[in-house]
Amino acid sequence: MAQETKDYKKALRFIQQKHRGQKRVGNMPVWHHLLRVSKLLGYILNTTREGSAKERQIIIKSALGHDLLEDTNAKEKEIIKVFTHRGLELVNGMTNTLGDYNHSPYIRRVSRDEEAVRLIKLSDLCDNFTGVAYALTLLGEKWTKSFFLPIVMPMYRALKKTKFRRYNKSAKLLFLLIESSINLLDNEMRHLKNKN
Predict the structure, then answer these.
(1) What's the farthest any 2 CA atoms get from each other in the chain?
(2) Distance (Å, rounded) from C-alpha 37 to C-alpha 91?
């Protein structure tokens, strides 16, 4: 499994270094999110066994670095050294250069990109929906409705319309998990509203 290789551990150390000091809600290091995205995708791909073992390892490892260009000072040369040229392609595919307030072009680009990029994005969405559901009391309903959902729901809907041929089973499993996470978030929002 990719998570057990020396290359994977090197990539994990790299993202920990590059994302050092970056936190998500609850004061959790950003790299925890990156590791969860990668591990979820690794579990799915190694369960379905779609694609070659080498391709699966590259996709799983690249999921670790999916925010490097967007959120760190990592240079492409550094990324190639740790993730290979192919890994850089996937990290580039996941990078939104226009920021969270101009996400429509990014959604269009990702939904037209290759299946490997879309798989990483699906795993990312799953972790984001789940994370927000569990941190809703900290993030608040207003932030969730006005900032988070207008970004992630259009991406989810756009990806739902795309076809996966090579990674069909993996995509189906990820969509099921995302739908479960969306339901969890909906339930948490209803619970929070009823509490107030």
Answers:
(1) 51
(2) 13
Q: What is the 3-state secondary structure (H, E, C) of 81-139?
A: HHHHHHHHHHHHHHCCCCCCCCCHHHHHHHHHCCHHHHHHHHHHHHHHHHHHHHCHHHH
Share the mean pLDDT of the chain. Answer: 94
Residues 58-84 have pLDDT tens digits of 999 999 999 999 999 999 999 999 999
Instruction: Tell me the pLDDT tens digit for each residue of 137-185.
Output: 999 999 999 999 999 999 999 999 999 999 999 999 999 999 999 999 9
Contact 106, 117 (CB under 8 A): no
Distance CA 37, CA 128 (A): 9
The overall pTM is greater than 0.85 = yes
Q: How far apart are the first and last CA of the chain?
A: 46
Q: What's the gap between Cα 95 and its chain centre?
A: 11
Cβ distance 17 to 11 under 8 Å?
A: no
CA dist., res. 57 & res. 35, Å (int)? 14
Of 136, 101, 117, the closest CA to residue 63 belongs to 117
Element (H, E) at 23: strand 23-24
Phi, psi of 29 (to 5 degrees): -60, 140
Closest CA to 67 of 111, 37, 107: 37
